[in-house]
Amino acid sequence: MKRAMIIASLGLASVLSFGASAAVHQVSADQAKSLQPMGTISVAQIGSAPMDMREELAAKAEKQGASAYRIIEARSGASWHATAELYK
Question: Where is the YdgH/BhsA/McbA-like domain (predicted)?
């Protein structure tokens, strides 16, 4: 019984770690050269932190099925706007 619980726990841990490694990440222009582009996304918001912009870009990129994104345009102030290129 203990053995079955250990195997089940290890299986669950491997699934969770795979999900964490499959997250979308930001890349530099040099890193993007080796990736296949798949379109662009834009996000905008009023009165929030720049970290919120990155979180929104990552969430939107993941929803589109991208593995990475690169910010190609960003404006900030009372409101901010960012555009990112998506990569497979």
Answer: 35-88
